[in-house]
Amino acid sequence: MANIYIPYGTVEGQTAQIAEYMAELIRSHGHQAETADLKHAGDTLPAGYDGVIVAASVHMGNHEAYVTDFVQKNRSELERLPSALVSVSMSAHGDQENAEGYVEKFKDQTGWRPSHVGLFAGALLYTHYGFIKKHVMKKITRDKGSQDTDTTRDYVYTEWDGVRRFTEDFLAGLATLQAQEQA
Asked: What is the pTM of this model?
């Protein structure tokens, strides 16, 4: 049984939902998992974990600064443990090259080269936005050619099957490493 830590950064909550979904999936496979909102949990990686999945959302072209700080501070431990990065952005919904560019920028900023990276689309949560943000997001969405401009509803683009496959692949890699260590 493995114990996985899933620290995350989120602005609108979609990355938190993805982190919680991964934790539930890990638990359903007989392991332990703990999520932590880095905005409140601080920048120290607790001891006692067998693996770490860092999740962060992208806003204005950058992952949250406090997630970057966490990774920089804990880089040596993240490199020692099996670890992965989950990057959540609207670019992951149709603009893979841009989504990959955000990850490369994050790697350059932190110096961390995770062995597993998951790129997942977030959500347009029009009903949660204030007046100005709602209309800015509508304009950006329209300018990108999307028809998802009805501000009376939300649009969730996260591909949950992809999140499941990513999490199960991470667990399989972790099991392989643990088996090699015991051999």
From this structure: 0.90
